[in-house]
């Protein structure tokens, strides 16, 4: 464990696969009480009568060592008998749910129906899965990511899974945003954090939903913030992030575009070693920039990349704390 981070509290903003890969790696280097993950719930939806929280599940499965690492969603070695039966019966099968994964949705739905909050349900499951780090849904209120596309207005999972993120997006908005609030646990975690990490998650549909909740962006700006770029060599590792930069901002995806998206929020940036030639240009925008291996396609790579990331954070933290004291 990097010694200086001992006793420091690190809060990570995360979506599904990119967030989980970094967080899983970090969990190897940090004690339980040091790491809190605030997870996007803009992807949540009701399907077959079940409350599904795709990003929370991906984070839980990764932290519990249950994840299908290469695929990035669901449980390793899961079977799909229920999906087969649904197909015979003429049910909806566009959203794949493994048999073990199904148990998560059944239990979550049952506990929510009994009046527990999503925060309580997530903590209960995390505890029973042996997870020592805190996993917090960004909100207990529904705040659903909606996409205005050339195929009309689509709910996130409809766009992402059913339509394989092919429709062109014109605008993103959140249904429920007027009344959705971050949870007390989220705000407390942000207030007591020593470092805020923005995971290499999709900026538009994984990180922005968290930042748009009332009070979150302000709380985040008061902290030292370090991000890992989800864009490597101008491309997303997985999913529609690169396409979103083109469609929504009219520019190609790049590390610079990621930095611009976060609009002055970043004190530090970690990008992939393949983008190292961008270092001088980025240093004009972010004070502390480092290039290192950030592809985390195996459990080992996750631990390695997270270790290097934390090492970088450790070397910066005294500086960043000084700077924020001066600014305050
Ligand atoms: P989702 O909710 O499952 O779509 O996942 P996230 O929003 O957390 O992550 C999607 C983003 O993660 C994409 O933009 C990918 O480029 C990025 N990503 C996925 N795996 C990796 C990785 O190993 N390294 C880095 N740097 N980014 C990754
Ligand atoms: Ca997601």
Radius of gyration, in Å, reads 19 Å
Strand order of the largest sheet: 5-2-1-9-10-13-14
Q: What low-confidence regions span 5 or more consecutive residues with pLDDT below 50?
A: none
What ligand molecules are bound, each kind once? Answer: guanosine-5'-diphosphate, calcium ion
In helices, the fraction of residues equals: 40-55%
Principal-axis shape: globular
Number of helices: 13
Distance N to C terminus: 30 Å
Quaternary structure: single chain
How does the major sheet shape up?
A: 7 strands, parallel
Number of strands: 14
Strand content: 15-25%
Q: What's the SSE pattern?
A: EHEEEHHHHEEEHEHEHHEEEHHEHEH
The secondary structure category is alpha/beta
Verbal overview:
The chain is of the alpha/beta class and 328 residues long. The chain has helices at residues 17-27, 54-63, 81-89, 99-113, 118-128, 156-162, 184-192, 203-211, 216-221, 241-249, 255-261, 279-283, 299-327; strands at 10-14, 35-39, 45-47, 50-52, 134-137, 144-149, 152-155, 169-175, 195-198, 225-228, 231-232, 235-236, 268-272, 288-292. The radius of gyration is 19 Å and the shape is globular. The chain starts with 9 loop residues before the first strand and ends with a helix. Bound molecules: guanosine-5'-diphosphate and calcium ion (CA). Residues 15-16, 40, 43, 54-55, 206 line the site of calcium ion. Guanosine-5'-diphosphate (GDP) binds next to helix 1 and helix 2.
In short:
The protein has helices at residues 17-27, 54-63, 81-89, 99-113, 118-128, 156-162, 184-192, 203-211, 216-221, 241-249, 255-261, 279-283, 299-327, and strands at residues 10-14, 35-39, 45-47, 50-52, 134-137, 144-149, 152-155, 169-175, 195-198, 225-228, 231-232, 235-236, 268-272, 288-292.
